[in-house]
Amino acid sequence: MSNRAAKFGSIYFGVFGAIVLLFGIAGFVVMGVYGMEGVTWGPLEMSGMFLIWEAIILISAGAMYLSSVSKFGEVRQLAKSVAASIMIWIVAGMAIWAMIAGSIPGGEEGPWFNPPVDFIATYAPPYMPAIFLLPFSLAIIYFIRSRRRSVTA
Amino acid sequence: MELTIDQRWDLVERISKETVEVGVYEPSLKDALADVTVRPATGIPFAIAVIYGFWAFFCEFAGTLFTDGFFCKIFDGHWLPWLQGVFAGTPAWVFNIFVGDPLADNCFEAFGVLSSGIFLAIGVVLPAIVAFYLIFAILEDVGYMPRLAVLVDTLLHKIGLHGYAIVPTILSLGCNVPGVTAVRPLETRKQRFLAIVLLSVFVPCGAQIGIMEGMIPGLIGWVFLALVIGYFGVGWVINKIVPGESPEILMDVPPYQMPTARNIWAKLWTRTSKFLTVAVPFVLLGCVIVAVLYITGAMDAIASGLSPVITGVFGLPQDTAAAMIAGFLRKDLAVGTIGMLAAGGMTITVFQVFTAVVLLSIYFPCLATFALMIKELNWKETLGALATLIVMVFVYGAILHLIGLSGIGSSVWVPLE
Predict the structure, then answer these.
(1) How wide is the angle at C-alpha B261 spanned by C-alphas B257 and B266, nearest 5°?
(2) Is some CB atom of chain B closer than 8 A to the CB atom of A45?
(3) Choosing among B31, B42, B151, which should be mutated to test the A contact, i.e. which has the most A CBs within 10 A?
(4) In A36, A142, B138, B343, which residue has its Cα 20 to 30 A from B217's Cα atom?
(5) A83 vs B46: CB contact, 8 Å cut-off?
(6) What values do phi and psi take at A111, rounded to 5?
(7) Given CB atoms, is B412 within the 8 Å cutoff of chain A?
(8) Do B362 and B344 contact (CB within 8 A), yes or no?
């Protein structure tokens, strides 16, 4: 990976890691204050029986991003960021999967399959934090490619 | 020509200079990622994320999409009314065995072999098993399971097992039957005995988890906590008591790789078909036996006979004896019975439900697992396992009863719709 890419990665994942960490801490606070009922704040939702685990995973991912920023160009440091990104993909992926699974059947009293309007409505906000973090975590792909290019060059 | 030792070494050196290229090894990103996932500081949080993903996928696939989304509607709306129509003119005992309660409007509460039996096996357990083994096969083929084994190796050594025991343990979360057979690669008889006892008692199967997830979603975490404490606590005691060795092993940790659809399908099919052929007949047999016990009045007699233990030692309502008996046959059936009894008017507190579900998990392996235990262990070991179970269930039940007397979870439990 070039020095420039490594420096950019270091700054990017430093800021992003801090945000992920803050979301994780917020999850803990919400769990402590409101329990599994959680809160909804505009398009953001923190609730559900897995909230505590999501908070633990986000805090861990945030800490792993932050610990990877020093000498980000080294492969071991990059691997920490990759692992942290995978953790976010798992949490966000499962939130998306929950929406997909909930959007297909038509409900207890309804038809076999959800009508199109209800199907689309399932995907409307609010979303959990990991879904907002997901697109920003995808930046790791650029750094993986950047490293691959520098290795093959 | 004969060479001296020095000449041989010189020759080796000359050949190696000409043939071996020495350089500095630069680990690839895959190597570094493999390293990150086995180091405790980063590997444990990563493992938590993987297990979270495993569990979340399981709940949504089995619960939301298939069981609640489609199977409840098929079985309650079409299958049960059809059965009730077909068996309408038959003698009462035939109706009770095959269809169950004539007033039931859902398969979960009917308790007939063709209503509840088929619904549990196909509508509840099968999606759970498929979801579980699908993810398990992917994790195996990606190469994550050996890393998880390395991560938990130190912990499992405390109870006389080694890291590989995590594979049959997790496998048992799907169905205890393949879990018990998967202990064969463990090194010694002692380790195999330990693993079989622990996983057949403290590891709830996918069927039971599926029912618990639907019936007591708020308590399921506590049930798991109680089972994990039991797994390690009882494991530690058995390790101290049972003679034998627990040797170290060297484990091959393969590199991460992309799973292939063909392998995943082969594993999924092998394991699921084993469940369908070995465990499902026991689900149906369980329904028949429970129905016969109710029809003949034997259930009431056994329940009153067991009441000093059920109420005195475990602090549970006497009516839960029926569930405990059903638990000998199928644990998922037994957990469901508690829900049915509560729905039918039995007063039971939240803590008593928790106690009953924990005791149901630990007091005896299901019939299918027990049959396999006899096959895998000799008679002496099987009797040892049973003696351990009896002592353990009384100690565990009494401890939970004492905790319950403090007033924790004393509100009346209301079953979910």
Answers:
(1) 110
(2) no
(3) B42
(4) B138
(5) yes
(6) -70, 175
(7) no
(8) no
Q: pLDDT tens per residue, chain B (417 residues)?
A: 678 888 899 999 999 989 988 887 778 899 999 999 999 999 999 999 998 898 888 888 887 888 888 998 999 999 999 999 999 988 888 998 889 888 888 887 787 889 888 887 888 778 878 888 898 899 989 999 889 888 888 888 888 888 888 888 887 887 777 778 778 778 888 888 888 888 888 888 877 787 787 778 778 888 889 899 989 988 998 888 888 877 777 777 888 999 999 999 999 998 888 778 877 787 788 778 877 887 888 877 887 888 888 888 888 887 788 777 777 666 777 777 787 777 777 788 888 888 888 888 887 777 777 777 777 787 788 888 888 888 888 888 899 899 988 888 778 887 765
Q: B152: which 2 tokens?
A: 């938990």
**In chain A, where the domains are located:** 3-152
* A142 close contact with B: CB closer than 8 A: no
B235-262 burial: b if 16+ Cβ within 10 Å, else e: beebbeebeeebeeeeeeeeeeeeeeee
Q: A25 φ, ψ to 5°?
A: -65, -40
Q: Which residue of B has its CA nearest to A64?
A: B42
Q: Which two tokens stand for residue B110?
A: 């009917």
Q: What is the pTM of this model?
A: 0.81
DSSP state of A46: E
Q: Does A153 touch chain B (CB under 8 A)?
A: no
SS3 state of residue A44: strand
Type of residue at B163: G
- Please give the interface size between A and B, counted as residue pairs whose CB atoms are below 8 Å apart: 99
- Quick check: B107 and B158 in contact, CB under 8 A? no
Give the separation between CA B255 and CA B245, rounded to whole angstroms: 30
Cα–Cα distances in angstroms (integers) from residue B402 to residues B319, B327, B348, B391, in the given order = 20, 23, 16, 17
**Is the CB of B32 less than 8 angstroms away from the CB of A101?**
no
- Give CA–CA dist B67/B33, Å, rounded: 37
Mapped onto helix, strand or coil, the DSSP state of residue A29 is helix
Please tell me if residue A103 touches chain B, with a CB cutoff of 8 Å. no
Distance from CA of B28 to the nearest CA of A (A): 7
Contacts with B218 from chain A: Cβ below 8 Å: 36, 49
Stated length of chain B = 417
Whether A56 contacts chain B with CB within 8 A: yes
Strand, coil or helix: A109: coil
Looking at the complex, does the CB of residue B256 fall below 8 Å from at least one CB of chain A? Answer: no
